[in-house]
Design a protein that fits this description.
Length: 447
């Protein structure tokens, strides 16, 4: 059974992970700063403190950090200016129709009320028209603190659950997670650039040995050094990334805790369960659509992200769950294909004829897909939270949540959603939903 830590341990663990990451990156910066290159030497690279110029390295590092800050601002500007992005606060275009069931004033009022309770300034509020259920924040000088809610997130949550999601994002602002994210990514950019330069120098030196000097012994030695340096550098980069991901996962747990403190723990837990279930559904739905598209010889794997968005948006996702997503995907995909052919080539095919044509195909495709993916194995690795939804209202009260916690604890190796099975849990930004629920249950007892 996993060890669920208390909140102070998680907070300290996050800070330690960030500190270790920064130490590792500066060790790498020091390492590459004192590297010297000598084409006459069999090894090509070495250390010569007399020839190294640390001041030059510091100058380059500072320049790249400044450039990275500018890139971050440009990246944020590109997000804000997306055509799918709708600003709700402070300015608002009243002619825009919101792609969600809530009014603009409701979303802004919820956010401002919670922000005031949290003593956090929110300068901008956005709604992103997206099929992916998510929410995020960014905090930058000049730009200020901003919260971005995805429209898909608002499609399936109750108002109280939306408030829990907003409170979670306010927790990120309160904990300065955006600023930490910027600080941890600037040194990594420098190291990656230097490593790329070293790869090129070693590769050119090896090529020179074979082609110009006709010295295969030196060439093989330099290739061996290149391969060794590549794996060593990748190990260091991935080790650094491991700690940034760890800090990110702990930041999410702290955001959950902050949300449960500001709203109610059962609201936050239900919001997480609904969010996880929707992510699972959309993931399965998208996978099935891509698989169906790959079956076409003339159109193999050509389904673009934009087309995928359109298909997902065209179907009311409230009518799809993780189970029938696999059954509905062939029907939706084939119907859309035939309707497009009818429109493009003016074919005289009625909706009824389309339905009659695809029904037999849907059954055979569903059977083929189930056999191919062995879906039952995935389901054996997850718990079904609906088992404790005794009144089938898609929400769990405190007693039902307590039973969910018991169910999770009695199945210590099982996750909550199939899209989490097989994921590299140490290299993802968010903790699995099992850990998130159990962590909240530890700090906010349900019994």
């Amino acid at each position: 059974m996993e060890d669920i830590q208390n909140i102070e341990v998680i907070r300290n663990r996050k800070n330690i992970a960030i500190a270790i990451f920064l130490i590792l990156d500066f060790i790498q910066i020091a390492f590459v700063s004192f590297l010297t290159f000598d084409e006459q030497s069999p090894l090509v690279i070495g250390f010569d403190l007399a020839r190294a110029n640390p001041y030059s390295s510091i100058s380059v590092f500072t320049s790249i950090c400044v450039a990275q800050v500018l890139l971050i601002y440009l990246f944020v500007a590109s997000i804000i200016n997306k055509k799918e992005m709708i600003q709700l606060y402070p300015e608002y275009d009243e002619s825009q129709k919101l792609p969600c069931d809530f009014a603009r004033d409701e979303i802004v009022d919820w956010t401002q009320k919670l922000a005031q309770e949290a003593s956090v300034d929110v300068d901008r509020i956005f709604l992103l028209h997206s099929p992916i259920p998510n929410a995020f924040t960014f905090s930058l000088p000049i730009v200020g603190n901003a919260i971005v809610l995805h429209s898909n997130t608002l499609d399936f949550l109750l108002p109280s659950e939306v408030e829990s999601i907003i409170a979670h994002e306010l927790g990120h602002i309160k904990n300065k997670d955006s600023i930490i994210n910027i600080l941890t990514h600037m040194p990594g950019f420098f190291v990656q650039l230097i490593y790329l330069y070293v790869y090129l120098r070693l590769g050119l030196a090896a090529a020179t040995s074979f082609i110009v000097d006709f010295n295969p012994l030196f060439g093989m030695l330099r290739i061996a050094i290149l391969v060794s340096f590549f794996f060593l550098s990748r190990f260091m980069v991935n080790l650094s990334r491991l700690f940034t991901k760890k800090a990110s996962r702990d930041a999410e747990l702290l955001g959950d805790f902050y949300s449960a403190e500001m709203t109610e723990s059962n609201q936050t837990m239900n919001a997480l369960i609904r969010l996880g279930q929707r992510v699972e559904t959309v993931t399965i739905f998208a996978e099935e659509l891509r698989w169906l598209d790959s079956l076409s010889e003339e159109n193999r794997c050509k389904l673009t992200g934009e087309q995928l968005r359109e298909i997902i948006f065209s179907y009311p996702l409230d009518e799809i769950d993780e189970t029938n997503a696999r059954e509905e995907a062939p029907r939706i995909y084939l119907t859309r294909k035939l309707e497009n052919l009818r429109e493009d080539y003016k074919l005289k095919i009625s909706d009824e004829e389309i339905k009659e044509a695809i029904d037999p195909a849907v059954e055979s495709l569903s059977l083929a897909r189930k056999t191919k993916t062995k879906l039952e194995n995935l389901e054996d690795k997850t718990v079904n939270w609906r088992e404790v939804d005794y009144n089938s209202d898609k929400r769990l009260n405190k007693e039902e949540l307590a039973d969910l916690v018991k169910l999770l604890k009695s199945n210590p190796t099982k996750l909550m959603f199939t899209n989490e099975v097989g994921a590299k849990l140490l290299m993802i930004d968010h903790p699995d939903f099992r850990k998130r629920i159990l962590t909240l249950a530890k700090h906010f007892p349900l019994e």
